[in-house]
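Lab notebook, entry 171. We have the chain sequence and a SMILES string for coenzyme A, and the next step in the workflow is to get a structural model of the bound complex before anyone spends time on docking refinements. Request logged below.

Task: model protein plus coenzyme A, output structure tokens.
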Amino acid sequence: METLIRRALPGDAAGIARIVTDAPWFPHDPEHSPHAGTPTIRETLDTRSDDATTILVAVERTSQELVGYATVHWHPYVMLGGWEGLVAELFVSAAARGNGIGTALLERVRAEAEEHGCVRLSLLNGRDSESYRSGFYRKRGWRERTEIANFVLGLERRPEMPGREREGGRR
Ligand SMILES: CC(C)(COP(=O)(O)OP(=O)(O)OC[C@H]1O[C@@H](n2cnc3c(N)ncnc32)[C@H](O)[C@@H]1OP(=O)(O)O)[C@@H](O)C(=O)NCCC(=O)NCCS
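Result returned:
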């Protein structure tokens, strides 16, 4: 399977939504995942395509089918004395897995992180996921931080998402 990796465009929303909602574990977070439909993904692509976030998609060259995506958030990390890239999502459609697409997306993320001048990349990986059990990230040089606990605080979604006028983007 020959794939092209490129920046996501607003027209990719339906393809990304299909990957998210086709996953057997959807909704991942029953309180919040129901929002992950095409309109909210399109809204995200419209409002978050700034310098603080990079959304990449993998597209099959012949069919132009969207077969994977990755989102990375770039933020300054004071204690590190530099920037960090947080790989928030990395998904490949079930039918396309095992063809090197996840690895290619991760390599492109790394190249972009180096361009951003980042000193580190990080991500969360469910311990009961296949990718964790098979050591997908470990095999690609990532180190697991077993000493860190992961906390989240769920928030109510506001009717309107903050847009470009928000401060804090990396310009
Ligand atoms: C993790 C994931 C992104 C990897 O994408 P991918 O395109 O399958 O990745 P690759 O083809 O580059 O590598 C997959 C590895 O699994 C092996 N593999 C072979 N067939 C496979 C299949 N049908 N499904 C999954 N993995 C397969 C590959 O040989 C490769 O092995 P390696 O790690 O020893 O090199 C993808 O499996 C996925 O979306 N999983 C569900 C969501 C997930 O766990 N995301 C990560 C959360 S942070």
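Notes for the group: The CA atoms of residues 27 and 64 lie 26 Å apart. Worth checking against the assay data. The two ends are 36 Å apart (CA to CA).
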